[in-house]
Amino acid sequence: MLPATAFDREGFLKTRQAWSPAVAEQIAAGEQIELSAAHWEIITLLRAYYEQFDSSPAMRPLVKWVKIHLGADCGRSVYLLSLFPGSPAKIASKIAGLPKPDNCL
Questions:
Q1: How far apart are CA 76 and CA 80, in angstroms?
Q2: What pairs with residue 13 in β-bridges?
Q3: How confident is the model over 79-100, as pLDDT tens digits?
Q4: From CA 79, how far away is CA 74, in angstroms rounded?
Q5: For the chain, what are the domain ranges?
Q6: Does domain 4-95 have CATH number 1.10.10.370?
Q7: Bridge partners, 7 (sequence order)
Q8: Marked catalytic residue, from 38, 82, 104, 105
Q9: Whole-model pTM?
Q10: Please, are residues 7 and 13 in contact by the beta-carbon 8 Å criterion?
């Protein structure tokens, strides 16, 4: 478990290198989310997106990315909201150990 000093004031990791699956579980617990296989699919896709584009996707690019890789059923805002309530791009990026997407409040 990482100390509070490893996170910024919004709960995002200060360094991506501090991330691990155990850290993802810690962050998710703080968001009252129990990670399932479906959550891990999105987290893995988010991390791949970051590796390719060097940024965390906002909602629209995230939906498109998920649709490309997991199909139309998963590539919908409603699906992502069911997994990461509130702000899927922001919360999923946080759990994935990535920076906050630029246009997320």
A1: 7
A2: 7
A3: 999 999 999 999 999 999 999 9
A4: 6
A5: 4-95
A6: yes
A7: 13
A8: 104
A9: 0.93
A10: yes
